[in-house]
Amino acid sequence: MQYKREKYLKTVWILMAFLFYSPLIAMADICTSYDTKTATLHIPSVEVGGAYLWLDVMLIGTDPILFRLTDYGESKTKVAQAVFSTESLKLNIPCLDLETSLTYWADLILKAEDSNNSIDLALNDIQANTGSLVINEIVAKDASGGNDWIELFVTGQSPLNLSDYSLVDDDMDHEKVTLPSIILNPGEYVVIQATDDAPEDGSAYVPFKLGGDDSVILYQNDSIIDVFDWEDGDAPEGYSYGRFPDGTGTPRLLIPTPNGTNISSTDSSVETESEEITRPDGWEEASHGKSADPNYEMVFSNSEVKRIDITFTPEDWQAMLDDMTELYGEFGTQNSNNSPGNLPPGPMAARPDMNNGRDINFADENPVWKPCTIQFEGKEWTFVGARFKGNSSLRDSWSSGIMKLPFRLEFDKFEDEYPEIDDQRFYGFEKLSLASNYNDESLIREKVVADIFRDAGVPAPKTAFYQVYVDHGYGEIYYGLYTMVEIPSEPMLEAQFSQSGGNLYKPDGTSASFASYDESSFDKETNEEEADFSDINSLYTALHGDRQNASLWRENMEKVFDVYGFLRWLAVNTTIQNWDTYGQMTHNYYLYSDPGDGLIHWIPWDNNVALKSTGLARMSPLSLDLTSQEVNDEWPLIRYLIDDSVYHAKYVELVEDTVETVFYPERMTGIYTEAQELIRPYVVGASGENAGYTFLSSEAAFDTGLDYLIIHVESRFDDAQEFITLNP
C-alpha cells in the first residue's frame, strides 16, 4: 500500500541547510569523496503498517550528498539511503523494519558521510525540544459559512506566550504571521480564525484562508516546530481535520470541536447537545457518510443496469397520492379507458369518481416529501426524503393513469426528525433524480443527451439506467426502467468546475428569459441564506448594456459570463434539437457562479424531449439559423449574442465542431444501439415493463424509437452541413 498523504501518514517537509565547500560532482560518480555536511530532519507523528514514509527533501545548492536514514533502535537498522543532487526530490522509505514506536516523535538518525568519515545526527530527543505547542485541528470549509480556523493545543508542561509563535500558510515563501500575546497553560486550546479581514469580535486571526488542499506551518521564533497538511477530501464541508487524540494522534476526519477535545467522525455514536446519536445498522462512511468522495462508478455505471428498491409505509404513500390529487386532480382523468379496476394495485384501486376531461395545469408547488427506505447493492438507507417531481412528465403521467412517476430523492431531508441519519449520503451524493423517460419510446434520451453535452465540453449531470421497484404495502412492484440523474450540487461542481462553493441557481419564471430582472425567478440551490444576487444582476446589466460599442460590450459580458461556454451549449442544443429549454421555455437550466474564474456558467437540465423535430402541441425546435422571427429580444442571451458578428462566427464554428466530433451518424448510431441493447431486457419481454407502468404502446414501439433516433441524427447532420456551407 503506497503512501499518498492519506489519513495515516502525512507529508513530511524536511528543511536541510548545508555548507558547501566541494566542487560539483556528477551523479554517476557517486563513489568519489563526499564532504561532511550538517543537516536537520523533522519526522512527525506517523503510524506504520506496511506503508511508506514519504520524505519531501529540499536541498540548498547543487553539490550531491549521500544520505542514510537509520532506525535508532538497538540494531541501528538502515532504512534507506540515496544520493541527492537536485533541489527537490522525494524519497519513498519503507517503514516495515522500524523498531522504534512511531506513535510519537520518531527516533531516527540521518547520516551525512564522505569516504573517510561520517556524522550521525541523532534525533531521539526531538519530542523534548519541540512540540510544546502543536496544530491540533483545522476547519477549511465551515458548514454554516463561517470563517476557516486553526486550533492550537499546548502539549508541554509549562505555560507559554503565544506571541513567541507564528503561522504561515502553504509554504515557507509566504510571510509568517506572529500570533497575539496570549498566555496558555498546559492542556489549553486556542482557536485562530483564518480570514482575510479582522473578525468583528476582536478574536485572534491570521490574514489568510485555508484551502481544500493546503498546509499550515507553525514556528517558534525562527524554528519550525509543526507542519500540518491535508488533501482534497480530508477536510470536507461540515467537518474538521485534526489529531486524534489531541496533540499526539494521527490526523483524521473529525467533528468540529473548537476549543474542545477532538471527536473522530468514524465513531458509531457521537454526543451532540448532550444526546447520544447512534447510526443505523450497516452505516458505513464510504456509502452513507458526508465525508466520502462521490463514487461515480458505483452510482452512474455506463455498463450495467442497476436496481434500486424504494419502500414507503402505506400511510405515507397514501398521503403522497392524496397530495397529487390536490395538485393535479384524480388519477387517470384524461384516459377514458382507465376505470378503477384498471388502476395499479393498492389504495388507488378504491378511488372512484373519475372526472374525465378535467383541465389540469402545472402545479404552483412541489409535491409533498415523505420518508422512505432505499435498498441498493445489499445496503440500506433509512428515512430518505422522496417526492414526485417534474412538470409535464408528472402531470401527464398522472392524468393518463400511468404510475411510472418520476421521483426526487434527498438523503438527509429528514435529518432533523431522525438525527441518526444526520448528513446521510448515497455514496457521496445528497440529492438524486429518477427520471421516468416520459414521452420517449427509446427510453435513452435522458441518458444519451447528457453524455452528448459532456462529450462536447458542456458541463452536464452524470446519468445511468436503473430498474426501480416500489413497495408501498403491497409487495415490491416493478415501476419500470428509469434514468438516474445527478442533481447539480457539490459533487458535480467539484468535478466539472474550477472551484465549488459558489452560487448555484435553478431559474424558472418570467425573468429566467433575462428580458427582465426579478430575483424571484432565480431560485438559489446553494448559499440560500445569503441574499446576494449580485452575480446575476451583473450578468443582466452587462447583457443589456450599450451594444453600439460591440467590443466593449463583449468585454463586459466576458467579465461576468462564460460566453463561449454558453455558445457551445447553444450550438449543441440547436443541432440535436431540444425545444423544452431556454429560447422557448423559461426553465430547464442551471447557472453556476464559479469562484475560481468569477464567471457564471450554463448547465443544461431535463433532456427527455431532446432529439426530436417536433415539440409540445407541434411546437418546433429552434432552427440552426436562430432567426429573429423565431427567437426575438424576449430571449436576449441568444438574440444579442447571435446578432454580434464575433459571437455568431464562434457559434457557427461550434456547430461545425459538434457534428465533426460528437454528433455524427456513425458515432451516434453505435451509441443509440448499444444503449438500447443494454436496457432491452428491462423494457420489453418477460422481465420488461408492465401495463400501468410504461409509456410504450407496444414492444414494437421500442424498436421504432431507435429507428427514429437514427433517422434524426442523419437528418440533423445534413442540416448542419448545409448551415455551415451557407455561413462560411
TrEMBL record:
Family annotation (Pfam families): CotH (PF08757), LTD (PF00932)
Q: Which residues form the signal peptide?
A: none
Q: Where is the composition biased (Basic and acidic residues)?
A: 276-291
- What is this organism's lineage? Bacteria, Pseudomonadati, Thermodesulfobacteriota, Desulfobacteria, Desulfobacterales
Task: Kindly provide the name given to this protein in its UniProt entry.
Answer: Putative spore coat assembly protein (Modular protein)
Q: Which residues cross the membrane?
A: none
Region described as Disordered:
241-295
* InterPro entries xrefs: Lamin_tail_dom (IPR001322), Lamin_tail_dom_sf (IPR036415), Spore_coat_CotH_CotH2/3/7 (IPR014867)
The chain positions of domain LTD read 120-243
Q: Which domain of life is it from?
A: Bacteria
